[in-house]
Design a protein that fits this description.
423 residues, alpha/beta, six-stranded mixed beta sheet, 14 helices, 21 strands
Length: 423
């Protein structure tokens, strides 16, 4: 896993190309320019064009429970029968998604859970410390708030059924507080009196504008000597003295190191390099309400329906759910509108006027862990993708780890759980 320092191998400033300008690529680039590397970011569209633009903005240091858990199999048929449920697989895509789903269910076997929980905790718990130097350098401190987050349950039975997960968090030093109806009402008056209990996570927070955060970080990179270029990467070529990145227009950029942080579009790039990674894109939707008519003091997680309501810079964002579909399939914006219907039941004064819809592709791996580390066959190419539903939380720590690897330092946390060849 050790990578020699670039300064030992090349004269002058090492040239690094970061493929992707979402939150992960931006954080990698920011940590690298802080250390004096020559950084070029390549983006096929524009910064934060994918899942980084429209996510729920959650910053969750205590988020360490994988998506696949023991006993989940019994819930899948019920979810699939509900077209408006939290998990939908379009019929035309079922067979293609089946191998990934089987891996996903296998990752939820009891004997695998503790190691995954530890790896998620190690990656997510430093989120605010990892963001701090980037936010200060980019002048973006106001975009991040450590407000806490509340997870609401309609019945005590629902909370009791999830206590195994809360106990795993507690065992790792994660703090939380259980609230009754009165506590919920005092904290979030806008909520209807339909929730019997809740869990307050005081150390959590959110980004008030995920798109703006990525843009500010990219602006810091370019203002510190880095470069942002528009171009779709179609291949990475390995040579004796360097690596070159080939663009769709035929142009080639030579580099000493290449970082693949292209989110959902990373899979074909690494497959051409001989590495097969079971990366699947889970579609997520949001409904953004510019004039919601209510105020939320902190994000609310509606655990039964699997979506968030987050107070943002310009209104409230309702975001969540999972949809599997062909990459070329048209978005089903009825799923976004369904979030508004559900939220209106639980936030009775909520106004949906002027709502806008969005769909993004989350890059997900079956064990809920990203890929972080060098390509097994060539440590000049580093991989940083597959952050799933936790990209805003895990991006800055990923950036720190990539900087450690390129500088030849021992990573500040153990990166073995995220190794690219674990599959």
């Amino acid at each position: 896993w050790k990578i020699k320092s670039m300064s030992q191998n090349n004269k002058g400033t090492p040239r690094i190309v970061v493929v992707g300008a979402g939150i992960v690529g931006a954080c990698c680039a920011a940590y690298l320019v802080r250390e004096g590397y020559s950084v070029t970011m390549l983006e096929a569209e524009e910064p934060a064009a994918g899942a980084s633009r429209g996510n729920a903005g959650a910053l969750s240091p205590g988020s360490c429970i994988p998506l696949s858990m023991p006993g989940m199999l019994k819930d899948v048929p019920r979810w699939l029968m509900d077209r408006n449920g939290p998990l939908v697989i379009r019929p035309s895509y079922f067979l293609q998604s089946l191998p990934w789903l089987l891996r996903f269910l296998a990752a939820g076997q009891p004997e695998r859970i503790p190691a995954i929980v530890d790896a998620l905790h190690a990656l997510h718990s430093p989120v605010f410390d990892s963001y701090k130097p980037i936010l200060e350098a980019a002048g973006a401190q106001s975009l991040v708030r450590q407000s806490g987050c509340i997870v609401v349950y309609r019945s005590r039975k629902g909370l009791d059924s999830s206590m195994g997960g809360w106990k795993m968090r507690q065992d790792r030093g994660i703090t939380f507080e259980i609230l009754d109806r009165s506590g919920i009402r005092d904290l979030v008056p806008a909520l209807a009196d339909k929730f019997e209990c809740a869990v307050l996570q005081p150390e959590h927070g959110y980004v008030t504008n995920p798109h703006s955060l990525v843009l500010r970080i990219v602006e810091y990179v370019t203002g510190s000597g880095g470069t942002l270029r528009n171009g779709r990467v179609v291949g990475i070529e390995q040579h004796d003295r360097a690596v070159s990145v080939r663009l769709e227009n035929g142009e080639r950029l030579e580099a000493d190191r290449v970082i693949v942080a292209a989110g959902a579009w990373s899979k074909p790039l690494v497959k051409a390099l001989g590495l097969s990674v079971p990366l699947e894109t889970q579609r997520g939707y949001h409904l953004h309400l510019p004039s919601p008519g209510i105020e939320l003091p902190l994000p609310v997680s509606f655990v039964d329906a699997k979506f968030y309501a987050t107070p943002m810079e310009h209104g409230i964002r309702l975001a969540g759910t999972v949809e599997f579909a062909r990459p070329s399939a048209e978005p089903d914006y009825a799923r976004a509108r369904q979030l508004g219907t559900l939220a209106s039941n639980w936030l009775p004064e909520l106004q949906l006027t002027g709502a806008t819809e969005w769909m993004g592709r989350r890059p997900c791996l079956p064990d809920s862990l990203p890929v972080i580390g060098p390509l097994p066959s060539d440590n000049r190419i580093l991989l940083a993708f597959g952050h799933g539903h936790n990209g805003m939380t895990s991006a800055p720590t990923t950036g720190r780890l990539i900087a450690d690897l390129i500088a030849g330092r021992k990573p500040f946390i153990d990166i073995a759980p995220y190794r690219p060849d674990r599959f």
